[in-house]
UniProtKB/TrEMBL annotation:
Domain of life: Bacteria
Organism whose genome encodes this protein: Comamonas aquatica
Protein name in UniProt: DNA polymerase V subunit UmuD
NCBIfam families: PRK10276.1
Keyword vocabulary terms for this entry: Autocatalytic cleavage, DNA damage, DNA repair, Hydrolase, SOS response
Amino acid sequence: MALPLADCPVRAGFPTPAEDFRGERLDIASLLIEHPHATYLLRVAGPSMREYGIDDGDLIVVDRAIQARHAHIVVAMVEGEFTVKLLHCAGDAVRLQAGNPAYPDITPQENETLEIWGVVTSCIKRFAR
């Protein structure tokens, strides 16, 4: 679905009526999704990533085609459970950092399974209905 893109920046206000959407149309899906066959939407449960702007109830766009790197926000499967965290890599060591000091970071031990499932590329928030 393509939506009109206003041809002026928003400075904490609305475009003037004289500039009434004379710009291009923007397809939301193409803006958010680079690899359609490898992209999923997941709903976030809990506040562990709030300091990174990801809140309880948000939708995150997760691309499984992107190679995860240090400092990416990722969805990982740890011991069979999904979690969203900031990826820290130092040599062979991996740590999943929470974005809330009330939640511990995850440093997988040798006997634990960890799979980086995908990279979070966007977060969709809903402010009003």
